[in-house]
């Protein structure tokens, strides 16, 4: 849980950029739409720091084999030093990949969402909010 000296705005920007980087790994011919949530929430890392958390949902053409796409997306990150990788079957028994920074709390989880979607959830590295900023609400 590293305080890298950046603001919540920088944490949000970085997280959303990586969400879109992950989404761009999906073959364009199966993408119907990409919807990045414009706001996210702050979660406590500890007593003094927070992480920004958001999501992007990619809707795919009906009949798309989602698990094979998710596994191909995972393969892209195998040699990426930014992340360590964990995989699991989620609560809906769908294959899911978690990318975790070995140095900070930054992480991304992607896998099949509802229907024909791939959901990409993000959590930024931890940062310290200015005392004048209340951590509740949308960011």
Description:
The chain has 139 residues and is α+β, with helices and mostly antiparallel strands. The chain is built from two helices and seven strands. The protein has helices at residues 8-23, 66-76; strands spanning 31-36, 41-44, 50-60, 84-89, 95-100, 107-112, 117-123. Strands 1, 2, 3, 4, 5, 6 and 7 form a seven-stranded antiparallel β-sheet that branches. The longest helix is centred in the first third of the chain and has 16 residues, at 8-23. It is globular, with a radius of gyration of 15 Å. The two termini are 20 Å apart.
Global mean pLDDT: 94
In the predicted model, the low-confidence regions spanning at least 5 consecutive residues are none
- Number of continuous helical runs: 2
SSE string = HEEEHEEEE
Morphology? globular
Count the strands? 7
Beta percentage is 25-35%
* Radius of gyration computed on alpha carbons: 15 Å
| Largest beta-sheet characterization | 7 strands, antiparallel
Structural class: alpha+beta
Distance between the termini: 20 Å
Seen as an oligomer or otherwise, the chain set is single chain
In helices, the fraction of residues equals 10-25%
């Amino acid at each position: 849980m590293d305080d890298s000296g950046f603001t919540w705005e920088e944490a949000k920007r970085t997280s959303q950029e990586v969400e879109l980087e992950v989404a761009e790994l999906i073959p364009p011919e199966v993408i119907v739409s990409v919807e990045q949530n414009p706001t996210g929430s702050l979660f406590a890392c500890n007593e003094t720091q927070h992480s920004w958390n958001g999501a992007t949902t990619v809707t795919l053409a009906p009949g798309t084999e989602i698990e094979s796409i998710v596994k191909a997306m995972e393969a892209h990150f195998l040699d990426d030093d930014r992340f360590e990788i964990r995989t699991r079957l989620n609560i809906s028994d769908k294959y899911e990949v978690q990318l975790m920074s070995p140095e900070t709390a930054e992480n991304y989880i992607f896998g099949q969402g509802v229907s024909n979607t791939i959901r990409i959830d993000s959590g930024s590295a931890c940062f310290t909010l200015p005392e004048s900023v209340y951590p509740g609400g949308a960011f």
